[in-house]
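User: Here's a structure from my thesis project, written as structure tokens. My advisor, Dr. K., wants to see whether a designed sequence matches the one we expressed. Can you design one independently, without my sequence as a hint?
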């Protein structure tokens, strides 16, 4: 989500984290706002907007943008993301009195200052199961009334997905299953504790007492099929003879809740990303990437795919977006959930060696089809000989 955290008085920092359409009707929405370590789930509906043409128009545009049904308005110059960001900023401003009343302080686990000094060691459970409040937006005569329903149960459902118990049992032979309270969150910057969903975590993968930095990958609620497909692919990797030094994002553990078949997320190899390009092979940034470095990446991608094929495995959704570059300028393959992307792999070649080779060839073409234009005052990269 593109919205920016909004700093408020009294150390209030609020950010819209997600929107869910149609909880009761097709034009209803629940927007979840994180503020000072709490979650506020704001229910909205045309039913609660009375005699308020200005607010109703704002809300209808927001719903259209969420559905990706927004037509670019040349007069207003608004894109869907701008419409959503503006609405989120307005909604946060409307609910500021509620935030100041309910969440005036920052709990220690979310306090950037305490995290920076090591006084606080936030746990994953605190971020995914925070203190919650069910709210509603009512509007009359274009005047908004923010309401917190203190005695109402929250409608928020954690993004848990079920997998077959047999699959969980097979995975348990190769990796450990962890509960959220066993996992420590590690933010790149302490300030992210107030506004970002955790993706970097520290977990003791064995009994050595040493914690390993992992990448936490979560799935949308209801995406059990996608989760199972990715876990089945990782299970094949775990069972294979693929060398452990192969540059792929491996499964290191599974985060489950109560039962091992209720999955919160996957713990994967953490890749310390290259600062340039954001660590990805984005086309609009390749112009500033030296040609020899691009050739290095193309060669490494081909070598890693050959390793996969040699172990009887396939990559699946072979495309530039599924390659990550680390700070040492090495290329890593990510995302083994299968599927195909138009323009990279033909649909009839999905999940095959032939499809992988087609995708790798197009990645190599993608890496070599641009000229080089260095950033001002940049040093050209040269591979060690």
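Assistant: Designed independently from the structure alone:
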């Amino acid at each position: 989500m593109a919205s920016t955290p909004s700093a408020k008085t009294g150390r209030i920092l609020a950010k819209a984290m997600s929107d869910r359409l149609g909880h009761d009707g097709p034009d209803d929405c629940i927007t979840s706002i994180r503020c000072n370590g709490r979650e506020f789930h704001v229910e909205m509906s045309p039913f609660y907007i009375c005699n308020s043409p200005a607010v109703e128009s704002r809300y209808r545009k927001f719903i259209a943008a969420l559905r990706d049904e927004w037509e670019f308005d040349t007069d207003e110059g608004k894109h869907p993301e701008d419409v959503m960001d503006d609405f989120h900023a307005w909604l946060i401003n409307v609910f500021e009195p509620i935030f100041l009343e309910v969440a005036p302080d920052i709990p220690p686990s979310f306090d950037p200052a305490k995290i920076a000094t090591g006084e606080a060691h936030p746990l994953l459970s605190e971020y995914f199961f925070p203190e919650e409040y069910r709210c509603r937006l009512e509007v009359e005569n274009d005047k908004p009334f923010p309401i917190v329903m203190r005695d109402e149960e929250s409608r928020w459902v954690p993004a848990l997905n079920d997998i077959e118990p047999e699959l969980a049992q097979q995975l348990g032979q190769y990796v450990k299953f962890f509960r959220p309270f066993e996992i420590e969150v590690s933010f790149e910057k302490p300030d992210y504790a107030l506004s970002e969903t955790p993706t970097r975590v520290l977990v003791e993968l064995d009994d050595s007492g040493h914690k390993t930095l992992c990448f936490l990958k979560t799935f949308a609620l209801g995406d059990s099929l996608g989760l199972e497909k990715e876990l089945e692919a990782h299970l094949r990797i775990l069972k294979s003879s693929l060398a452990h030094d192969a540059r792929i994002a491996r499964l290191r553990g599974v985060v489950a809740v109560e039962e091992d078949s209720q999955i919160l997320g996957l713990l994967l190899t953490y890749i310390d990303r290259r600062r340039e390009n954001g660590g990805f092979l984005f086309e609009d940034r390749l112009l500033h990437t030296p040609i020899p470095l691009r050739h290095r990446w193309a060669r490494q991608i081909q070598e890693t795919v050959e390793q996969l094929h040699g172990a009887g495995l396939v990559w699946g959704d072979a495309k530039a977006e599924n390659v990550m570059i680390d700070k040492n300028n090495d290329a890593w393959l990510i995302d083994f959930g299968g599927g195909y992307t138009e323009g990279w792999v033909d649909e009839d070649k999905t999940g095959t060696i032939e499809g992988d080779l087609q995708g790798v060839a197009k990645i190599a073409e993608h890496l070599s089809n641009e000229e080089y234009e260095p950033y001002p005052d940049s040093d050209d990269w040269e591979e060690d000989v």
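When you compare it with your expressed construct, this may help: The longest strand covers residues 259-269.
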